[in-house]
Amino acid sequence: MTDISRGERLRFRLSRLYRRAVAHLPELGVGGALTVGGTLLILQEELIKQLIGGWPAWLLIVLVVLVPLAAGSLTYLIRRRHREAPPRPAMAAMPFPDRIDGFTGRDAELRRIKDEALEHGVVVVHGGIGMGTSTLAIQAAWELAGEARKQRYADLRGPDRDRPETPLSVAQRVLRTLNRPPGAIQEPQDATAQVIEALTGTGQVLLLDNVSSWSQVDWLPTRVPGAHVVLAGTLTDAPPQHVEPIHLGPLAPEAGQALLARHLGPERVARDPKALELLVDVCLGSPLEIVRVGRWLARNPGVSLQSLVDDLRGRPVADTLDFVLHLSVKQLRPTAKQLFVLLAGLPIAEVDHQAAAALLGVPSASDAIGELADLGLVENVRMTRVRVSSAFRGGGAEDSPREVAAWRRLVEHFAEQAGSYAGRLPAEEARTWFAMEDRVLLQVLAGRAPAPRTGRALARIADALESWFRLEQRHEDRLRAAAELGRAAEALGDEQVQATAELRQCAILLTSGDPREARRHFNRAAALRVRVESWPAGLHLAHAAILLSGGDEFPAVESALVRYGQALAGGDVLGQAVRLANVAALLMRRGQTLDHDGRGPEARTLHTNARVVLFQALDLARRAGDTAAEAHARELLALAHHYLGQSHDAGLHLDEAERLYTGAADEIGRARCLVHLAGIMLEDPGHAPDAVVALLEEAESRLPPAGVSTALVHLHLARLRRERAAEHQEAGLAALSPWDGIAEPKQVSELRSLLLAL
Q1: Which InterPro entries does the record cross-reference, listed alphabetically (predicted)?
Q2: At what angle do helices 627-643 and 573-596 cross, to 10 degrees?
Q3: How buried is 745 (Cβ within 10 angstroms: 0-12 exposed, 13-18 middle, 19+ buried)?
Q4: Element (H or E) spanning 50, and its range?
Q5: Helices (DSSP H) in 599-626: which residue ranges?
Q6: Distance between CA atoms of 556 and 543, rounded to whole angstroms?
Q7: What is the C-alpha separation between 730 and 737, in angstroms, rounded?
Q8: Is residue 26 very low, low, confident or very high in pLDDT (cuts 50, 70, 90)?
Q9: Which residues are CB-neighbours of 96 under 8 A, at least 6 positions away?
Q10: What's this model's pTM, rounded to 2 decimal places?
């Protein structure tokens, strides 16, 4: 029996019956449809007469009044329910690896891991490549938590062969595994408290596999009450003194012989037990090498163990294992051999099975992958992903015409996949795909000199990553993807794609509060378009933002916004919403300047006009269905109401903006709302200083290190916490350092003066 309920079965059958009936409607024709419709109306009328025939008149009058009211209320509730923002889909977590069958030779280490995990909570398993570190850790995790709901797994082995994942990337991967938004942190240490909160008292086991250095995970808590954390890998640096890793050495000879015999069968082992011992000695106790030799022998039943020993005798230790590997390669069929050579030469460490097929230019590569896996030449890792064994890294032919063509097919495959899934965001299936592939896509952008005619495909990959990283608020990764796209486009001579990449970097740097670097990228983008009339809309918008961040040249900003509006495509509702929001920001900035100069009535008029424009922008953002644009319009509306002295309305808009930013996981936007709210509270004589400090400290942890909002936070904290005024003064001035030596708007100059006067 399946788990489908009777109700679900009934709904399915009724739905199927309805679809079949609808499919036959065209056969009725117009006359038949009218006849059926008229008959149904007559039957409905007769049914109503029968129902209400004996009802008193007063009851009919009551129903006439109440039924429309009830129907209207019900309709309103249904529509309101559909208008409410749906809950964000859960973060995609990698499934836990299966339990290991026939576990051999590590019973003592397994018991020690379990004891350490039960006593200390966090345990580290360290071993050389091929020593079975991951296998042992997976088995121990199953022993600690046998239920799937209590198992959490993250594979930290990244797509770059030569560069391990950064601590921040590892922290983000762990947070996603624990169903926490990865974009909520800016430093790895920010994830420590979230890991404790997510695991404490749950009885769960978190397995972090393929850890390459302690620095990747030194931010983890030293203990999590009521949970276990298991770290497994080949550490290249020593952990701190309070951590005692469980070291895995070579397998004992008896365990190695048992492992090899499992692949050969008892009859073959009985014929030559001495040769079995010698083969295990050749493998130096490495489970990986023992399995590889065993698989080759299993595929070659006619080869005696002694003959292989004779071939290996007298060879240097470094050559003995390569000898078996090369024997395996020689036996490959042409398709499998071609795939192996291509995989070995890739700049990315692993790909999924569909990407492997794209490399070959065939519909499916399953048979070739199976053949390679049987001989231990590739590993099937992370579900349907394949990775060449470390012994063959970089073994492919470089820059041959066949490899270049294969790389082009791979890039186009990833572009198609990424574009398709980006269009489905934020659906859970799209999140799952990007969570698995985002590092691979970054490596595709950065891995090698771009192949000819791949510029558009690389641009599609970068566009998809921009959508994904914006959704997760991973601004560092956004900047890296845009930079790699710009490098590739410049190498290919594609000015249009390069301009897009430069503009993207400009926008990201403005968000992070670095106008100097933003202007440099803007200038590079502008240099690719000599005539202003030929600029794309995004370039005009970036120009307006650069001008606004670099001074108070309001006419120039206004001109740039006009050109932006003219460059927008017809019917671009979102673009018009962005334009109006920027127009309103310009009006409010000008109003602030006039107010500072003692021209209050003129400033109030500008703030009133900005409020009108923002309501229009808000309406367009809703029609476009863009949460980020709606949140930004709400945030600016709150400021407009605040400048007009309408604190209550400002608070309502701030609450709504914060809710929208939270739903979009935009921590920087949410932090700005907290700063605005703190500013409103500070103008209230009866404000609670501790509540304001709490808001500001929460905002500080989410804001970038530079920018006006960050400087404002430190100014407020310096005034509220006099004992730390010097510390906040220094941090506030550092937040304004990107404007050192360049033109700056009046609000930056005023902030700098206030900080220096503390």
Answers
A1: P-loop_NTPase, TPR-like_helical_dom_sf
A2: 20
A3: buried
A4: helix 29-52
A5: 600-624
A6: 9
A7: 11
A8: very low
A9: 141, 148, 151, 152, 153, 207
A10: 0.68
